[in-house]
Give the backbone structure.
Amino acid sequence: MPHQCTNCGHVFPDGSKEMLSGCPDCGGNKFQFKQGSVDDVEADTSDQPAGDSDPQPTGGSEPTSGPEPDASTTPDTTASTDSPASDPTPSPEAPTDSERSDAELMESDTADAEESPAQSSARSDVVSSDELPDSPPDAASTADADEPTTESEETAESSGLNQLRSELNDQFESIRIVSPGEYELNLMELYDRNEYIISLREDGRYIIEVPDSWDTDMPS
Amino acid sequence: MGLLTNLKDSVSRVTDRLFASEDPKRIGIYGPPNAGKTTLANRIARDWTGDAIGPESHVPHETRRARRKEGVDIERNGQSVTIDIVDTPGVATKVDYKEFLDHDIEKDDAIRRSREATEGVAEAMHWLREDVDGVIYVLDSTTDPFTQVNTMLIGIIESRDLPVLIFANKIDLDQADIDRVADAFPEHETVPLSALEGDNMDEVYDKIAEYFA
């Protein structure tokens, strides 16, 4: 899945190693999945929660401010907020929401088509998809059912989140997101890795900290 | 531990000291959540620098970022040993926000804590891999030491050949069982203490000076 710098919007093709040493444009170290590129989910996920629920100050600054309003809360709060959230998103593709918007990202994908041999090292040890937790089939199926109620939107949204979650798990088995707020950790994987996920968001965003920068923010 | 092994260890510690660089050793305080790591780190830091390192709490995963105190001078037998102390987040294989709900923490906050705790474990493992020169492994002596986390971490520490001291903490509690801790890791030195009450801290500092100088 392609990634995008949350600071300047620079897009990295799927598997690019470039981002492991920080964004070449702005030096940022915070990246997010480009959700729009997931074919099957594009309808529901892409748009969605990540975009709206967050205070989405989008621009360049907000992502770097660490403890932003938890995306993790999104799944829970969705019930109340989703209806407005899900409607507008699909179309507004680019403009205001700038970097996050999926459509925009999709385009840049193709531009970056030169796929490097991926973080093959980082992914090589990943478990097969059948070993993955459960990408709750219930949620997915209910979402397909297209119930007219707000509940359907909620489930659709959560199915998208579930899929993103499982994809995240797929790439970074060292930390498995069982559900929002519930994690399983593979200590040996965490110990063995060069790069580390140090920030997780249940909507599929995460931060990879480049090893060199570990010391910088340590209080002395 | 046999006599020869003891002798070898002593010799290697002395030679390490002779050829050591001027930089103080960085000692990581590791262990499962709620073992008393931060209480110990604060006790050491307060005793020798007057400052604390971080907040202590009964709530698990209170420490979710590694915290470091540099240049802690410990005086033993007329000599001074300088170390940097790194208080690390408690290591666990599962983190669940529901465990915070019992401590009057709201769900949203519990989920956030859970995520931060997970990040903290990742950070602790990173430090273990590259950034510590020795380990103080803190265990709650009132609980069973035979756990997956303890076995795995001690195994990693051994594989890195890092000097390690096992601290059997909370000996002020009635249920404390120091022998159980010592039996769990017989190949390592176990030091009983109560970081909270300051019990047996003299031996703690003796051992720190001996192992990490």
Summary: Residues 3-215 of chain A form one domain.
